Amino acid sequence: MLQRILYGKLRRGDAFDTEGRLAAQFGVSLGTVRKAVDELVAQNVLVRHQGRGTFIATHDSTAAARLHFHVVGRGRTPGVAVFRQAVERRNQAGESKQGKNLKLSLRASVIEMRRTKSWADESIMFERVYLPARLFPNFKRRLGQARPVLLYEFYEQEFGVSVMNFDERIRAVAATKADSELIDCAPGCALLEIERTAYGYDGTPVEFRISRCETRRRYYLHSRR
Which of 29, 53, 64, 194 could be a cystine partner for 211, CB 3.0 to 4.6 Å? Predict the structure, then answer.
């Protein structure tokens, strides 16, 4: 079923085959198909709509909330960070940390985009975003002058690459001189660094991102609600 989504050119919002048709196509029982569909629903790959059928899950508000960065300001409100500026270049992955996190071969090409984004309280975050070049052809041209607020939606709309889940690692780091110029803080000040690896439908890494922001007005919130 995942292969049909990955290689069958099905996009978010498209109708999925009925469980009866899938059972006939795969030559298995209806119960087996139902268990598989249940698992994909639990993984947020598929969604059931009562009386309408099963569909490829869309980037609705629930999905956006599940995937957004949990960096908040006063009042626990995340707000929306605006894409300010970007510099993009392509380099060979080799044995780099980026290539390893994306699980690429030594000769695979990696796209690197460095950007800043800011919140309404003027807090600034600096990000280095790394992408497998084979999944994002002509990235620089297709990004153009666009400054998408949500990169995941841009990936899906422009390249058909969907982000389903992610891993994050968080630590405190001291701002370098370059950081201080971009984030508008003193060299050596405490920064929050988030390393995130985002995964597609089949669990393949589709993005590795390193984000840094100062901690005077921003902190990381993990809520069970």
Answer: 194
